[in-house]
Amino acid sequence: xxxxxxxAKLITSLPKLTSLDISGTNLAGSFSFDQDEELNYIKxxxxxxxxxxxTMQASIAGLLVLKHKxxxxxxxxxxxxxxxxxxxxxxx
Length: 92
Description:
two-stranded parallel ribbon, 2 helices, 7% strand, LRR_Zer-1, Zer-1-like leucine-rich repeats region domain-containing protein
């Protein structure tokens, strides 16, 4: 299982995504990670140009490829304390 890659693939496949509910899943991934390392890993795994710039801060690695904040991000009962994370790129 590669929750970070699964979530990043979903995000890159839906560029106009405004709401996402990952409640009850393992898609939040690890609680602690290095953002630069994870972003490089995602780029490599998804064949994204290494020069493509992503500026979203996110405490869920798979969300690092977001181009804009979500209107809603559902995190009820996710693994690894999803809702307790510092940077959640969503308005609600």
